[in-house]
């Protein structure tokens, strides 16, 4: 693609054309190769303009920059195409869309935002679409799906260039749908700039990421951006959890959308609302049943998922499926076949009579919900909760997570999560503040491997062991000397090893 073609329609302050062919778009100088257009932009951690010389040395033939100084320096080179923009991330999205042939205009995109439930709801939406033979792209925290191809996801919401590349791959594979999680960071940072949404889903809002957003108000406003459109028109339909305290704010933000709400509870309807209600909820280990009352009719829904929180996720996904043209009966049939999402109330089988669950719960609200579900299922047994809090993240939620664990558990084992650059003992000390004055027995074991073994060793038949905080993650990040390192760590594998070791001892 010629340089003048790739910058066509892009919002620029100045352009100096050059007769060069662009073979790729990159924002990371390390990925730059011969024929690349390098997008040099200011980011949160570094300024890409510092690496323009490196990109040119590696073969870049064009540069898009948000630095007037860099632009002026490059205009003296007739062999380099260069453009100056005001907003680097917006321009990255625009040139990437041009380069990849605007796949975002081909795919019908459903996006999910919220503190908890994003991953599960996105998986469920994609599963419902797949159940009626629609080909989809899924971008989520755990995995990326391109029709039948499944790969690990490096980020919850990648940069726009990477999203558009995946979308283009999906279009080539015959996809007509896309489902993605939209994190608050990605919305504020405009990593999803220019992606037109057909359906936007809000799950809930609880304390998280205040290290970045500062206040709950700012966090909520970040989520609400999705309903206004990020460089696009608002979504066609907004699906909003009416039971969440932030629902009103989201509905207001969705004034340009058709608003559908969902909730769990009685069948009392707001005549002015388009509602989906789960009523008569019945819960068990490995199954859920409820009556789904919708504007399209009422049906009994049976699912292999566990817990009230998954009732919310299922209703959100089914409403989204109907927004995408599935019938109520198709959604009910599809819901019955949906499997649990990895790392979300994932049970680890054993013959010891112990229920062992791995779950991603990493906020006080998610942990409280997880423990509440465990308490419903455990009967006369004990709830043993092992968890930690991530380092270099919002410290104020640590005592709240401690309180949530202590209020509902019989035994709490405080351990390490991803301490990153922080001292795990200091993180645990913050957690222990919230455990004061609770009735739970409390232990501290900062070695997560040992903590998992301890939780499973002390469990008796009929108990439930919750290994919370990391879920699907397959590594642990901590400081070694002056650098951060990632080492392989899988809660499910650790639990299996601990169970095998206990079984072998009789």
Automatic annotation (TrEMBL):
Pathway named in the protein's UniProt entry: Cell wall biogenesis; peptidoglycan biosynthesis
InterPro entries: Mur-like_cat_sf, Mur_ligase_C, Mur_ligase_C_dom_sf, Mur_ligase_cen, Mur_ligase_N, MurE/MurF_N, UDP-N-AcMur-Glu-dNH2Pim_ligase
GO cellular component: cytoplasm
Mur ligase central domain location: 112-320
Top-level EC class as recorded in UniProt: ligase
Main localization, broad class: cytoplasm
One Pfam family matching this protein: Mur_ligase_M
Gene3D superfamilies reported for this sequence: Mur ligase, C-terminal domain, Mur-like, catalytic domain, MurE/MurF, N-terminal domain
Keywords associated with the record: ATP-binding, Cell cycle, Cell division, Cell shape, Cell wall biogenesis/degradation, Cytoplasm, Ligase, Magnesium, Nucleotide-binding, Peptidoglycan synthesis
Catalytic activity: UDP-N-acetyl-alpha-D-muramoyl-L-alanyl-D-glutamate + meso-2,6-diaminopimelate + ATP = UDP-N-acetyl-alpha-D-muramoyl-L-alanyl-gamma-D-glutamyl-meso-2,6-diaminopimelate + ADP + phosphate + H(+)
Residues that, per the record, bind ATP: 114-120
Modified-residue entries (N6-carboxylysine), positions: 223
Binding site for UDP-N-acetyl-alpha-D-muramoyl-L-alanyl-D-glutamate: 29, 156-157, 183, 189, 191
Role according to the record: Catalyzes the addition of meso-diaminopimelic acid to the nucleotide precursor UDP-N-acetylmuramoyl-L-alanyl-D-glutamate (UMAG) in the biosynthesis of bacterial cell-wall peptidoglycan.
HAMAP family in the cross-refs: MurE (MF_00208)
Protein name: UDP-N-acetylmuramoyl-L-alanyl-D-glutamate--2,6-diaminopimelate ligase
Organism for this UniProt entry: Terriglobus saanensis (strain ATCC BAA-1853 / DSM 23119 / SP1PR4)
Gene: murE
């Amino acid at each position: 693609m010629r340089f003048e073609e790739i910058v066509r329609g892009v919002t620029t302050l100045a352009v100096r054309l050059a007769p060069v062919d662009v073979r790729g778009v990159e924002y990371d100088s390390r990925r730059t190769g011969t024929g690349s257009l390098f997008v040099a932009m200011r980011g949160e951690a570094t300024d890409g303009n510092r690496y323009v010389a490196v990109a040119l040395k590696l073969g870049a033939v064009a540069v898009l920059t948000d630095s007037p100084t860099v632009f002026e320096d490059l205009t003296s080179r007739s062999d380099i195409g260069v453009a100056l923009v005001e907003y680097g991330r917006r321009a990255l999205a625009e040139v990437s869309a041009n380069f990849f042939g605007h796949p975002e205009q081909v795919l019908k995109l459903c996006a999910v935002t919220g503190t908890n439930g994003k991953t599960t709801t996105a998986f469920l939406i994609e599963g419902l679409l797949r159940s009626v033979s629609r080909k989809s792209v899924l971008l989520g925290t755990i995995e990326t799906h391109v029709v039948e191809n499944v790969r690990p996801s490096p980020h919850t919401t990648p940069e726009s260039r990477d999203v558009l590349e995946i979308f283009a791959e999906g279009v080539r594979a015959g996809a007509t749908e896309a489902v993605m999680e939209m994190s608050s960071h990605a919305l504020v940072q405009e990593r999803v700039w220019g992606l037109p949404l057909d359906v936007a889903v809000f799950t809930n809002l609880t304390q998280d990421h205040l290290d970045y957003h500062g206040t709950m108000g700012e966090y909520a406003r970040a989520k609400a951006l999705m309903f206004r459109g990020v460089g696009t028109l608002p979504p066609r339909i907004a699906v909003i959890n009416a039971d969440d305290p932030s629902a009103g704010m989201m509905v207001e933000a969705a004034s340009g959308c058709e608003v559908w709400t969902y909730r769990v509870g009685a069948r009392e309807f707001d005549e002015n609302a388009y509602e989906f209600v789960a009523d008569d909820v019945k819960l068990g280990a490995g199954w859920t049943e409820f009556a789904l009352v919708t504007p399209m009719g009422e049906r009994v829904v049976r699912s292999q998922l566990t817990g009230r929180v998954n009732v919310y996720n299922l209703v959100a996904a089914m409403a989204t499926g109907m927004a995408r043209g599935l019938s109520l009966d198709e959604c009910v049939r599809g819901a019955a076949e949906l499997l649990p999402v990895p790392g979300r109330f994932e049970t680890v089988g054993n013959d010891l009579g112990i229920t062992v669950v791995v779950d991603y719960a990493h906020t006080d609200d998610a942990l409280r919900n997880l423990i509440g579900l465990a308490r419903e299922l455990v009967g006369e047994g004990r709830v043993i909760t092992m968890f930690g809090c991530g380092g270099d993240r919002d410290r104020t939620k640590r005592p709240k997570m401690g309180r949530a664990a202590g209020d509902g558990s019989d035994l709490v084992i405080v351990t390490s999560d991803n301490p990153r650059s922080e001292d795990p003992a200091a993180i645990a000390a913050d957690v222990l503040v919230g455990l004061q004055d609770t009735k739970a027995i409390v232990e501290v074991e900062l070695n997560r491997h040992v903590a998992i073994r301890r939780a499973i060793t002390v469990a008796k038949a009929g108990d439930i062991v919750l290994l919370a905080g990391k879920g699907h993650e397959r590594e642990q990040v901590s400081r070694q000397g002056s650098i951060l390192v990632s080492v392989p760590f899988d809660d499910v594998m650790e639990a299996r090893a601990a169970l095998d070791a206990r079984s072998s001892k009789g």
